[in-house]
Write a structure and sequence with these properties.
A hairpin with a 7-residue loop joins β6 (320-321) and β7 (329-330). The chain folds into 3 domains: 20-199, P-loop containing nucleotide triphosphate hydrolases (Rossmann fold), CATH 3.40.50; 205-268, no CATH class; 274-342, Winged helix-like DNA-binding domain superfamily/Winged helix DNA-binding domain (Arc Repressor Mutant, subunit A, Orthogonal Bundle). The chain has helices spanning 20-31, 50-62, 78-87, 90-98, 121-134, 150-164, 177-184, 205-216, 220-230, 234-246, 255-272, 276-286, 293-300, 304-316, 335-342; strands spanning 39-43, 67-72, 138-143, 169-175, 197-199, 320-321, 329-330. By secondary structure, it is an alpha/beta fold. The strands form 2 sheets. A 5-stranded parallel sheet has the order 2-3-4-1-5, sandwiched between helices.
Length: 344
């Protein structure tokens, strides 16, 4: 039997712990008669389940007859790609033909006799969306791992125009905290600050335990023990499950390998992107006698004003958990061991 877990980023695993609250929020918001939100941003650390959540949402809308779902490559020209993807949809093509939208200038094979071709991409998409709106169609665009690139800035500015004109277009994007923040800080894209942002929190431990229990046919106590080892981190759930499956259900024997996988696949990359001061703060947290912020600051010899910017940033990056007032803990399983070993 095939291993039901996956170590591949971006691939929807055979077994994933769903996020029903977040899925319902997005799908109900986009599907409502009176639309208040046309964009959602999913942010979180690598392996936190951003792509999986986006894929689940897109799958739901693909099954709705009045929706066209388009996935765009962040390395390509977004507007041109959107035009091409819409034209490749047979339902859309018939609508564009009936609306007499001539896209021959762009080499898309949609030429209307006697109608001049549209030579501006933004104008062409507006006409296409107007045609789709008349037929009760809505378009959902998904973009994975966005960055503050020139093509992204152009697309976001155009998307803002589409929204202002009340066109039936919706957008769901994933990105690391720092990449989303850079994009939001662009002076012409302030509308992104008003867009709902879903931060990928750890999975429910009980849900993780139930998955392990049903897959490995183990008792509740063992399943909970396995789930707690993951701290609800989605990639850790997959790694521990994958290795345990290959080891015939005996998870105690693969714990060292489990931690090494997390280090090789995620932690080393996360660590390389941190500033020297971020690393110092994390080392101070990892080596403190307890998780109280007061103790951590004393260990680091930092006052509140000096410490708070790092605390806030590391929480937003998805490395630390500060939900319990006065305390800080690591979100990622065994990350404190990695920090202590790698700090110089």
């Amino acid at each position: 039997m095939q291993n039901p877990f996956s170590l591949t980023f971006g691939k929807n695993p055979l077994n994933a712990v769903s996020r029903p609250v977040e899925i319902m929020e997005i799908t109900e918001s986009f599907s409502s008669e009176i639309v208040n939100q046309q964009i959602y941003l999913l942010t979180g650390i690598r392996g936190s389940g951003k792509t999986v959540l986006m894929t689940e949402v897109c799958k739901i809308f693909r099954e709705k007859k009045d929706w066209i779902v388009v996935e765009l490559n962040p390395e390509l020209d977004f507007l041109e790609s959107l035009m091409s993807k819409l034209v490749s949809n047979s339902t859309c093509t018939e609508i564009f033909k009936s609306a007499k939208i001539n896209l021959s200038f762009w080499g898309l094979g949609l030429e209307i006799s006697g109608v001049p071709p549209i030579t501006d991409k933004e104008t062409a998409i507006i006409k296409m969306l107007e045609g789709l709106r008349k037929h009760g169609k809505r378009v959902l665009i998904s973009i994975d791992e966005v960055t503050d690139s020139p093509q992204m800035r152009v697309f976001a500015s155009s998307f803002q125009i589409f929204v202002r004109q009340e066109l039936p277009i919706f957008l769901i994007m994933t990105g690391l905290y720092e990449n989303i923040e850079e994009l939001q800080n662009e002076k012409n894209l302030t509308f992104l600050y008003r867009a709902p942002k879903i931060e990928m929190k750890p999975l429910n431990i009980r849900s993780v335990a139930e998955k392990y229990r049903s897959i490995f046919e183990i008792d509740d106590k063992t399943a909970v023990k396995m789930a707690k080892l993951t701290k609800g981190y989605p990639f850790a759930f997959q790694v521990l499950g994958y290795l345990t499956w290959n080891n015939k259900g005996k998870f105690e024997e693969i714990l060292d390998e489990y931690e090494h996988y997390l280090e090789d696949y995620v932690y080393e990359k996360v660590w390389s992107e941190l500033s020297p001061k971020d690393k110092t703060v994390l080392y101070g947290i990892a080596t403190s006698s307890d998780s109280q912020i007061k103790t951590i600051r004393q260990n680091l010899k930092m006052d509140t004003n000096s410490f708070n910017p790092y605390r806030k940033r590391l929480i937003k990056k998805g490395i630390l958990n500060g939900e319990e007032r006065g305390f800080l803990t690591f979100v990622l399983p065994a990350f404190e061991k990695f920090v202590i070993f790698n700090f110089e």
